[in-house]
Amino acid sequence: MSERIAVLGAGGHTGGFVVAELRRRGMTPIPCGRATDLDRAFRDADAVINCAGPFATTAAPTIGAAIRAGIPYLDVTAELEVVADTFAAFPGAGIPIVPAVAFYGGLGDLLATAAVGDRPGADHLTIAYALSSWRPTPGTRATGRVSAQRRDGRRVTYTGRRLRHRTGDAPRTEWTFPAPVGTRPVVGEFTTADSAVIPTHLDVPEISTVMTSNAVDDLLAADPSGPVAIDEHGRSAQTFLVEVVARSGGEERRAVASGRDIYAVTAPLVVAAAARILAGEGNAAGVASAGARFDARDFLSALSPGHLTLG
Ligand SMILES: NC(=O)c1ccc[n+]([C@@H]2O[C@H](COP(=O)([O-])OP(=O)(O)OC[C@H]3O[C@@H](n4cnc5c(N)ncnc54)[C@H](OP(=O)(O)O)[C@@H]3O)[C@@H](O)[C@H]2O)c1
After folding, report:
1. pLDDT tens for residues 220-271?
2. If you measure from the C-alpha of residue 222 to the centroid of ligand 1, how many angstroms do you get, rounded to a whole number?
3. Distance (Å, whole) CA 124 – CA 136
4. Secondary structure (3-state) at 101
């Protein structure tokens, strides 16, 4: 029988991609809106994918309902504080809980895990994001406001094995991405869910993150029209490249992925994770990330070349 997946926030931009990807894979989405009685909806579901953000409001109550229903919970949060809260609040949960299986969070975690390979970790990780543009959705803008409020205007970095707050302007520098992106101006300390997820299973004392300046400027300008679909899958013209560099001693290991549309690519990531868990892979109870649960290289390869280009 086709797996039934409850999708919270199914009417949103990312939720729409997730519903379409579930259907494409022969699974049955159960769309859940704001007024949904989660206990009732989850009674008929085999798993839940939470796409309703800001997750500061939705993650804990949805996880609570998933625990009562006894079904796996996955979400696509980019909020690193929510990831940290989820790990802290539900360590002994009797269901698999997988936070941040998305462009921010899951992809960086899987690339970092692939780059580190058979090592337990790395002395230093750099995660470098290149976006050709970024027209944020209302959900992204609302999430940015909630996170800024929660941080009291400060930024977050991961250093000395801890997430720490910083004040002042983020550093601006340059980063040389693999071709065809090349050397680009970047903003440093662009810390995302990746930096909350990766240290939960890799031994990494320092994580640096950079984002191309044009994307940060787009985010600050926040065009209210949001992403514009240009293909039959509803994807925008936005392209991305994510490079993870793991340094240990004098050695560097890299993993790179590129593709189109950070919202659209979130759907195959989280749906693939749900499908693997329901098939019995990486389905241990408790909170663990995609990189901790799955063979990262195999997971990424299975999304290539349709959703991601690797290397
Ligand atoms: N980690 C990543 O890379 C990544 C990727 C994609 C998305 N995201 C995150 O996913 C979230 C959604 O993004 P989006 O692009 O889909 O935004 P969106 O198009 O604005 O959709 C947001 C959806 O969430 C629902 N929602 C919001 N608050 C809710 C609540 N309290 N209870 C129930 N439903 C609620 C909204 O319902 P209404 O229509 O009723 O308001 C809407 O369906 C954001 O937090 C974004 O940061 C993260």
Report:
1. 887 788 999 999 999 999 999 999 999 999 999 999 999 999 999 999 999 9
2. 16
3. 30
4. coil
Cα separation of 67 and 89, whole Å?
A: 13
User: What atom of ligand 1 comes closest to residue 105's alpha carbon?
Assistant: 1
**pLDDT, tens digit, for every residue of 92-145?**
999 999 999 999 999 999 999 999 999 999 999 999 999 999 999 999 999 999
Q: Which amino acid is at 195?
A: S
The reported pLDDT for the residue numbered 224 is 80
242 bridge partner residues: 129, 257
User: What does the chain come to in residues?
Assistant: 311
What's the helix, strand, coil split of the chain in %, to 5?
Answer: 35, 25, 35
Q: Which two tokens stand for residue 181?
A: 């992106």
Q: What is the DSSP string of 14-63?
A: HHHHHHHHHHHTT-EEEEE-TT--HHHHHHT-SEEEE--S-HHHHHHHHH
What mean pLDDT value characterizes the chain? 96
Classify 189 as helix, strand or coil: coil
What is the distance in A from the centroid of ligand 1 to the CA of 53? 4
Alpha-carbon gap, residue 74 to 58, rounded angstroms: 12
Domains of the chain: 4-102+265-303 (3.40.50.720), 104-263 (3.30.360.10)
Distance CA(119)–CA(200), nearest Å, equals 15
| Atom number, ligand 1, closest to the C-alpha of residue 100 | 1
Helices vs strands, H then E, count in the chain: 11, 15
| CA pair distance 47, 30, nearest whole angstrom | 10
Residue of 17, 34, 261 with the most ligand 1 atoms within 8 Å of its CB, for mutation: 34
What is the reported pLDDT for 223? 76
Helix ranges (DSSP H) in the chain: 13-24, 38-43, 55-69, 80-89, 108-116, 138-150, 194-197, 213-221, 262-278, 290-293, 296-302
34/71 Cα distance (integer angstroms): 20
